[in-house]
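User: Second chain of the day. Same drill as before.
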Amino acid sequence: MTDLQKERAVTRQIVTDALKADELSHSLDNISSDDNCEIEDYTDAELVAEAKWVLSCYSEPGHIHCQMLTGDDGPESQKTARREKRQLQRFLKKHA
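Assistant: Same format as last time:
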């Protein structure tokens, strides 16, 4: 195993926690694909900034996450949105 492989094997705690938050994980997958890099390549500050942005979508009128949170898409999607929002808040409480 090369040094780079060993380094990648030990994932930073903030990355592990980010991937536990469903919407943050989804967002990071998308932007890392667009940026042609790995999620682990982002700095802690970039991960926190992305989490803050994703969380802000839950209070932005007209955004799908806001519609879900207010129950416009039914009680199941509202429950999902509440869970996703709590995941983001926990992540930010720990890492911001």
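The helical segments are 3-9, 13-20, 22-35, 44-56, 64-69, 75-95.

User: Great, on to the next one.
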